[in-house]
Amino acid sequence: MKRVFSIASLPLVSLLLVGLPLTAQAEETFSTAQLEVMAGGCANCHGTDGRLAGSVPTIAGRPADVLASRLLDFKHEEAGETTIMDRIAKGFTDAELEALARHFAGIDLENDNETEE
């Protein structure tokens, strides 16, 4: 038996096909609150806003493409020298890691508003 879609179903099918790219794009956009939650775990080692000075690298203010590349290397086990970052990065999607890279890259270290006591 041959099945044929009715003409009435065409608007629904076309709506679904048009909506797919929008859904994929929406998954890569994160709210400020979502980014803050995701970045909160980074503070354990890299300090608040990625500014920790010491043996753990400062990630704030570094270029987003460098950070994203490094995070993706950790996730996909392409970085040789890791401590725990390979395991942490695996808990995020590629889009989340790229968003985190943009988040930390956007922190301006030159105009740091924190005051020293």
Structure commentary:
The protein is mainly α. The protein contains 6 helices and no strands. 51% of the residues lie in helices and 0% in strands. The longest helix is centred in the N-terminal third of the chain and has 18 residues, at 10-27. It is globular and about 35 Å long. The relative contact order is 0.14.
Q: Which percent bin holds the helix content?
A: 40-55%
Terminal CA distance: 81 Å
Enumerate how many helices there are, as a single number. 6
Sheet bearing the most strands, described? none
The total beta strand count reads 0
The average pLDDT score comes to: 77
Structural class: mainly alpha
Overall outline = globular
What is the ordering of alpha helices and beta strands? HHHHHH
Strand content: under 5%
- Gyration radius, to the nearest Å? 21 Å
Low-confidence stretches: 12-27
Fold blueprint:
Blueprint: H1 10-27, H2 32-40, H3 43-46, H4 64-75, H5 85-89, H6 94-105
Q: What attributes does this structure have?
A:
117 residues; mainly alpha; 6 helices
Summarize the structure.
The chain is mainly alpha-helical. The protein is built from six helices and no strands.
